[in-house]
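Entry, Tuesday afternoon. Goal for today is a structural model of the target with zinc ion bound, before we commit to ordering more compound. Inputs were pasted exactly as handed over by J.K., no edits. I checked the ligand SMILES twice against the vendor sheet because last time a stereocentre got dropped in transcription.
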Amino acid sequence: MHNGIGCRACGGQDVRQRYRVKGYDLVICRRCRSLTTAYSMSETKAAAFYDYSYFHGGDYQDYEASEPYMRRNFERLVVRLKALYSGTRLFEMGCAYGYFLDVAQRYWEVAGMDISPAAVAVARERYGDTVRHGNFLKVPLAEGQYDWVVGWDMIEHVEAPRAYVAMAAQLLQPGGHLALTTGDVGSGAARLLGRRWRLLTPPSHLTYFSRQGMDLMLRDAGLSDVGFSTVGYERSLDFVAFRLLGEKRYDRYVKRHLRLRARLRAISFYVDLGDIMFVTATKSQASPELSVRRSGS
Ligand SMILES: [Zn+2]
């Protein structure tokens, strides 16, 4: 244990100090090798943290301006989901501005939720009350209703990912699927770069999952058939400049030069560095009586 925080991925308590990044301690789990930011993000802190400025200069350089690229990324995810399983109803955890829901609503009946009041306000203007504001763990949702529960690059942000996945499993109907994307701390890029890996961004990222940690978390939630692959993203050159230069230098050399910025925005490319995992898992088809018998044996 490190300041009372164990491994957010597998729930293990045997952790030790690994890195110090931006003043935050990151601890590594001896069991599953996932990293945990030794910092508690309360609901109040989260709602304040994920305000307008988070989506405009925080982890995202300009979330709304990136919409065309994000939509194409989401189209790619839809293709992958459809190839695996169809179903009729889909729920998105951490839907932000609702771009994925907009793409997905061509194939599923969709609903979503986000902790950010700023993002939900925009999403609701466009997609109405299918998008709800609040804490996924607290707002009552109909259980056993969904064929898909998905969360794109959000599980690393939440204080209690194991509780999120357990809740997602409850929302799924038997045979339903969960899909997540998140950084893979065991990937070649992450191991090569160590504390300089681009996704080590506390306090917005609280858990850096290994595949083993992810697998343990999903199985503990009663999900099975856990499958891993990687996913890339289409990025504009403008976004890449922001990431490479850092916010201050980007503001100085790019942001104020509108023509340069427009040019950089017009160029985009798809990159898969292999350090983001795409993971799916299934809720068992077993009848309730069977699971009671199993847990009793
Ligand atoms: Zn662990």
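The first strand starts at residue 15 and ends at 21.
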